[in-house]
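@channel sequence for tomorrow's demo:
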Amino acid sequence: MNFKLSAGFIVLSIFISSFSCSNNPNRSRKPVVQIKIESIHRKIVFGDDLNIGITVKIKDGNLKETKLYIDSVLITSDKNAEFTYSLKKFENIGKHTLKAVSVKDDGVEGVYYKTFEVLSDIVPEAYGYEVVKTYPHNETFFTEGLEIHDGFLYESTGENGKSSLNKSELTSGKTIQSLKLSNKYFGEGITIFNDRIFQLTYKTKVGFVYQLENMAVIDSFHFESAEGWGLTHDDKNLVMSDGTNILTYLDPVTYKTVKRLQVYDDKDPVVYLNELEYSDGFIYANVWTTNLLVKIDSKTGKVLSKIDLYGILTMSNPDKQVDDLNGIAIDPLTKKMFVTAKLFPKLFEIKLVKKG
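structure tokens (generated this afternoon):
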């Protein structure tokens, strides 16, 4: 009897103690932060001045300071409950995150986030094409990467069990060297840089490096993106696409991510960026499942022009089933542009023609 009474008393004591703690009038509450972003446009555009308004509400205690970050970089701090901060000519295209961290004297802090998006300030120019010359192309190649080097055509093909790396004669289309990938790999984009051939794979997050002169495998690497799509390079880094609107720059020695470039036009992010080619400061990209190529400013990510290749796949054999338009190669010496498609019997040298 005494044991039961004692146990009941313990339970009741714990209940009262818990109730008292949860209703402690001295308990400090987190600051509440409101974030506002304004620009001259309804949607924020590259080069806009941004006015950021911060309002901190505190029910108890005193505010010590509020720190403001953009994409994890501290841009200002302030001790006032209300303040504004102006960013002049914000020139970073894409999605960004504002973080406000308000801290009270007792150390209790409130952390709040607000995302915003910056569009390009350029309406892309519209281009069509003119076929300059037609060359034969191996119609069994599921084209994923295309490159011109020293007058030869290098090509990466996809599909598990069929993926390969190939070197062909440009004029005849004859394959003079070929290397088959292991069946578990789906070949994707390639680029030739510093006498090496770099090749991505699709979902295995693995890339391969080959000696240019004999296509012998000399290295492999892992990349962070979930998928590998297109690959090119500028003067310093490899540049890869992953099917989104983001281009990832990789160090060609360590294969570490150097930076990411978000690609936008004046309305939206441009997604499904696929096969890539770099030339004279610009990146050209196939847009998957469309007839479009886009020309991208490699410094800002702005889409400068959209090139419509509609009709090019029906020129050779309108009755033959052809997969997606994919493959851009620009001869670094002559600046001639070549395009093709997956499982397509022709390679086209084209000239871009401005519409209107």
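heads up for whoever presents: Helices lie at 2-22.
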